[in-house]
Amino acid sequence: MNGNPTIDPSESRLLDGARDPSKSRRAAADPQRPGEHCRAPAGAWVPFIDREKCEGKKECVDVCPYSVFELGTLTDGEFSSLSFVGQMKARRHDRKTARTPKAAACRACGLCVVACPEDAITLRREPSP
Ligand code: SF4
Ligand code: SF4
Fold first, then answer.
1. How far apart are CA 110 and CA 53, in angstroms?
2. Domain presence at residue 129
3. What is the CATH number of the domain that holds 94?
4. Residue 71 lies in a domain
5. Ligand nearest to the CA of 28
6. pLDDT-derived band of residue 128, with 50, 70 and 90 as boundaries?
7. In a domain? residue 49
8. Whether 24 contacts 65, CB under 8 Å
9. What are the residue ranges of helices labelled H in 32-120?
10. Which of 55, 92, 112, 129 has an alpha carbon within 20 to 30 A of 98's alpha carbon?
11. Residue 84: pLDDT band by 50, 70, 90 thresholds?
């Protein structure tokens, strides 16, 4: 792909609604952003978080224009279902992990996918097969 994708003016205004608009704009300009479904009907796509990878770094919380994410803590059940390496990592970051309490508001902009430093987020079509 050549250069950065254009940010539509309406999308650009939307980015101001993110908790950290400057991070959000950087993510919007990332050529790897999976934005082909951007502005899908709310909840048609939802973010899926790989708990083995998530380190609670909160970039998703900062960039999402629809406040889909919040930071939480792994339950004992989630923690015990992780691999040995996943548990080691989780201990290092106090079991912090991203939650998606407002997943139904997701518009598939893809900002969280490219902002996550751990590649922990994928977008999935709802309802999942
Ligand atoms: S999903 Fe990625 S960006 Fe979000 S808290 Fe986890 S590591 Fe951080
Ligand atoms: S893809 Fe969905 S969850 Fe991710 S930043 Fe965009 S609206 Fe938020």
1. 18
2. no
3. 3.30.70.20
4. yes
5. 2
6. low
7. yes
8. yes
9. 59-63, 76-81, 84-92, 111-115
10. 129
11. very high
Residue from 52, 53, 60 to probe ligand 1 pocket by mutation (most atoms less than 8 Å from CB): 60
Say yes or no: CB of residue 58 within 6 Å of ligand 1: yes
Q: Is the CB of 60 under 6 A from ligand 1?
A: yes
Q: Is 49 in the pocket of ligand 1 (CB under 6 A)?
A: yes
Beta bridge partners of 123: 47
pLDDT score of 9: 65
For 4-13, 68-77, 104-113, which range has the lowest pLDDT when averaged over its residues?
4-13
Name residue 49's beta-bridge partners: 121
Confidence of residue 3 (pLDDT cuts 50, 70, 90): very low
Question: Does residue 73 belong to any structural domain of this protein?
Answer: yes
Q: Model pTM? A: 0.90
Ligand 1, atom 4, lies closest to the CA of 60
Range of the domain at 33: 9-124
Across the chain, mean pLDDT equals: 90
Count of domains forming the chain: 1
What does the block give as tokens for 7?
Answer: 């940010």
Whether residue 117 is predicted with pLDDT greater than 60 in this model: the reply is yes
DSSP assignment letter at 28: H
Q: Which of 7, 38, 112 to mutate to test the pocket of ligand 2 (most atoms within 8 A of CB)?
A: 112
